[in-house]
Amino acid sequence: MDAENNPESPDQDIEFLEEDFVEVVDLDEENETSEEGLAIGMEDVGVGDEVDDQDENGDMAEKDDADLCYEKHTASIFSVSIDPVNNSMAVSGGEDDKAYIWRIQDGKTLMECRGHKDSVTCTAFSHDSKLVATGDMSGLITVWDVVTKKKSGTLRQQT
């Protein structure tokens, strides 16, 4: 492709329309390269409705824009899996040594998976969403029946 038809060619001039510019800041000649001159010229430039979201430490406050927060865990969550059939259930495992199977639509807990001795770091649904496997840091893997809400079996790491 030649430079005339290639929009990425450095030889081609780029045209800007007046409506493309938001604000033009003129710097005076003597301060045009200094940071102070730039700061003076830019002090009135804004980027819309700015809100001071800093906390007392000067850190930016986190904005919670989640549609749903599952809050049954009492410590950090390390794993979340979604059922592959309907995408309506989730299983989450965490530092509280528990896993929970819950409904995504409203966060209702469908089953509490107890019996782990360490943080639950792995979770997975079976291909048909009828079983869930949860694994903890001690090497224990537990299989749960989603339909009957009972433990189906366990696997332990051999030492």
TrEMBL record:
Residues 46-59 have a biased composition (Acidic residues). WD repeats lie at residues 70-112, 113-154. Gene3D superfamilies: YVTN repeat-like/Quinoprotein amine dehydrogenase. InterPro entries: WD40/YVTN_repeat-like_dom_sf (IPR015943), WD40_repeat_dom_sf (IPR036322), WD40_rpt (IPR001680), WD_repeat_multifunction (IPR051179). SMART domains: WD40. The keyword Repeat applies. Residues 29-59 are annotated as: Disordered. Keywords: Repeat, WD repeat. PANTHER family: ANGIO-ASSOCIATED MIGRATORY CELL PROTEIN (PTHR19857:SF8), MITOCHONDRIAL DIVISION PROTEIN 1-RELATED (PTHR19857). This is Angio-associated migratory cell protein. It comes from Desmophyllum pertusum.
